[in-house]
Each structure stands twice: as C-alpha cells, then as structure tokens.
Design a protein that fits this description.
Helix content is 36%, strand content 22%. The longest helix is centred in the middle third of the chain and has 21 residues, at 54-74. Helix 2 (30-46) packs antiparallel against helix 3 (54-74) and helix 3 (54-74) runs antiparallel to helix 5 (122-129). By secondary structure, the chain is of the alpha+beta class. A hairpin with a 4-residue loop joins strand 4 and strand 5 (140-147).
C-alpha cells in the first residue's frame, strides 16, 4: 500500500480564526532535522493569536521530526551536496505543517516494520497522530494537519 492510497483526511471545523504562515529552508542534513524541530517549537510557543496548545505543539514537533528525517534520509534533499528541505507552517483553525523535499524515485509509503527494525515508523506515527496527512500536491514531500485542541500527550511523545 502506498502513502497516496493510505493518506488520511478529516474535515476540520472552521471558526474564522486568522491564519498565520511561516516557512524556513534548512540543510538536508541530520542537524537540519533538529533545527527544524527547534524552530517549530519556538514558533508555536510564541503563537498567541491563536495560541497553540502545548500538547498540539509537542505532537507537531514529533511529526515534523519524522517528516524531516524522511526528507533527509530518502530524498535528494539529503543525498546530494547542498540539498535542502523547506518547512511551511500554517496556524489557524488547525495547524498544518508542510515539508517540501527535493524529490525521490519513490513516494512515501506506510511500512510494516518488524519489532527489531530500527526505522520505518515515521509515517506510521504521522498516520496515528495527525488528523489529516498526505503527499504534497505541488512538488515533493508531505504535509500533516493537527486540530488545535488540548489533549493528553502519550508518554512516548514526551520522552526526550
């Protein structure tokens, strides 16, 4: 099953909340993944109109780490010298994070990793936590959307 077949969407209610957008382009290196996560955490902690609940921000940081790591590991963003990936964030009725990479021969695919496998769970986490996600319609990469609500954070998300 490929990601396009398994991408999940849910219609989120609109409240007329103002939408703010920010973006940042980062190097296609492992350090770029951490930099992207720290940038998002800072951005969401300062968002006041509308505020982003702490639990939503924590989940967004986890899912961005997975999406950015996929871009660095599986696309030209990480395999060619000087490669980059771009993160776009929209804060409004929902929080949408878009990770644009430089392309690959394949599209992201939900895997079924074995219990001892050290990788292959990124899209599974995105699928489990995001209210909607999918392959970017323009260009390469993926996006995910989180409803803005305060909810308990699974303990696995809060571990350093």
């Amino acid at each position: 099953m490929n990601a396009a077949d398994s991408a999940r969407t849910r219609v989120l209610p609109r409240t007329g909340t103002r939408v703010r957008s920010r973006s940042r382009t980062l190097p296609g290196l492992r350090t770029g993944v951490a930099d992207a996560r720290h940038w998002l955490e800072g951005l969401l902690s300062r968002a006041t109109d509308p505020p982003v609940p702490e639990s939503t921000a924590a989940i967004a940081a986890l899912l961005l780490s997975e999406a950015a790591a996929n871009a660095v590991r599986h696309t030209a963003s990480g395999s060619r010298p000087g490669g980059t990936f771009t993160v776009r964030v929209r804060i409004g009725d929902a929080l949408t994070v878009d990770v644009e990479d430089e392309g690959a021969a394949t599209v992201p695919t939900l895997g079924t990793p074995g219990g001892d496998d050290e990788s292959g769970r990124g899209l599974l986490l995105i699928d489990a936590f995001a209210d909607a996600w999918g392959i970017r319609s323009e260009g390469c990469g993926l996006y995910f959307t989180l409803a803005r609500y305060d909810s308990p954070i699974p303990s696995a998300v809060m571990r350093p």
